[in-house]
TrEMBL record:
Keywords: Iron, Iron-sulfur, Metal-binding, S-adenosyl-L-methionine. Belongs to the radical SAM superfamily. Anaerobic sulfatase-maturating enzyme family. Transmembrane segments: none annotated. This is SPASM domain-containing protein. SUPFAM superfamilies: Radical SAM enzymes (SSF102114). Coiled coil: none annotated. One of its GO terms (molecular function) is iron-sulfur cluster binding. It comes from Vibrio parahaemolyticus.
Length: 380
């Protein structure tokens, strides 16, 4: 599905974002049937999170959603298990979105300080996509509509986080989701040297499907112009947690901060940061299936099969899926011995490739120092 933006930090490759393929109604409903059936038959699956992303999903005709989302809702309701349905949009086109937003539990959009144009346009001083985004946001919240803001921890976002959050908060945003940067796609291309990027591309498949192979690889960002260090990410989350406390607004929610507090107090893992690939199914507009959303952004993705051509249960039980999820789930011994392993399960394998395990004082990709801050200040 085509996207009308070209963000540097996107995990989708540009050639994938330029593709114009769309699901037909028949393909979408067939996929819904298979996924709802798999959800119903899986005793370990207690709650379904269904998310529609792109590309840019609002480029689809509104009739696609008005005709098919009620069908999706009906099929999952028949499982007698709860479901949360989200659409993720870049919010540059909201007129059509208003016609079907009520069909979703959550309307989510992304924003970073350096998104769209130069940061000087954040207040809309010139005509730009950024100005249009802000106009749409103010109009949306001004009409009493709720929106969730997800943001990636880009360097400029972290450097300007407080001004950005204050601005969004003052414009009616009360739900935020902080996404730690996941290096792949255009982001991986931008942060590695040409030599390291070529090496990663050659070895990517074996790193992600051979449980032991990824332990032999480590990469280092050529600079921190786009992606900050793990230390900077941890410092940002600590400062943001204190900002949340200072606001003292019960309607204000920031994930994963709220869930960090709840999970650490309860001694349970946090699905907001633990890798979800073993329990997830991500399907592209052409029907290719993987467990990791990042894969959907690859020209040659790790595909367990095609949902429009192959037997769905064979895809779910495929050998490649087993190898892929085993590799993602396998963590270094340093992770297994950490007191917070129960909590993050080792985090994201892509981020793990940039963790200097040889340095005991280095911040880990899971941001252990932030967990320690939460434990020391919020644990009952």
């Amino acid at each position: 599905m085509k996207c009308n933006l070209s963000c540097q930090h996107c995990f989708l490759h540009q050639e994938v974002r330029d593709q114009k393929e769309r699901m037909t109604q028949e393909e979408f409903r067939s996929l819904v049937d298979n996924m709802a059936n798999d959800f119903a038959l899986d005793p370990s699956a207690e709650f379904a999170e269904v998310t529609i992303i792109g590309g840019e999903p609002t480029l689809m005709p509104p009739s696609f959603y008005t005709e098919n989302i009620p069908y999706l809702r009906k099929k999952f309701d028949e499982t007698n298990k709860p479901i949360s349905l989200t659409i993720v949009t870049n919010f540059t086109t909201t007129n059509a979105l208003k016609r079907y937003a009520h069909l979703f539990d959550i309307v989510s959009t992304s924003y970073e300080w350096d998104r769209f144009d130069s940061q000087k346009l954040i207040l809309g001083s010139n005509s730009s996509k950024k100005e249009n985004w802000w106009k749409n946001l103010k109009e949306w919240t001004g009409e009493g509509r709720k929106v969730a803001i997800s943001l990636a921890t880009t360097t400029e976002t972290i450097e300007n986080w407080e001004e950005m959050f204050e601005l969004l908060y003052s414009n009616g945003v009360r739900f935020f989701q902080v996404n730690l940067m996941h290096p792949d796609g255009e982001l991986m291309k931008g942060i590695l040297s040409d030599e390291d990027y070529e090496d990663f591309c050659r070895k990517r498949l074996s790193i992600l499907t051979d449980p032991m192979e990824k332990m032999n690889h480590h990469y280092k960002a050529k600079d921190n112009a786009l992606w900050p260090s793990f230390e900077k990410e941890a410092e940002f989350l600590i400062a943001l947690t204190l900002w949340l406390d200072k606001k003292d607004d019960k309607e204000l929610v920031i994930y994963p901060i709220n869930s960090h507090k709840e999970c650490l107090n309860g001694g349970t893992g946090n699905s907001d940061i633990a890798c979800p690939a073993s329990g997830a199914l991500c399907v592209t507009t052409t029907g290719e299936v993987s467990g990791c959303t990042i894969e959907s952004g690859k020209p040659n993705m790790i595909s367990y099969g095609n949902a429009f051509k192959d037997d769905f249960q064979e895809i779910v039980n495929s050998e490649l899926r087993m190898k892929h999820t085993m590799s993602l789930d396998l963590k270094p011994v340093e992770c297994l011995g950490c007191e917070y392993y129960f909590f993050c399960k080792g985090g994201c394998s892509f981020r793990e490739l940039f963790w200097d395990r040889s340095n005991p004082n280095a911040e880990c990709h899971g941001l252990k120092s932030y967990f320690e801050f939460i434990k020391n200040n919020y644990q009952n």
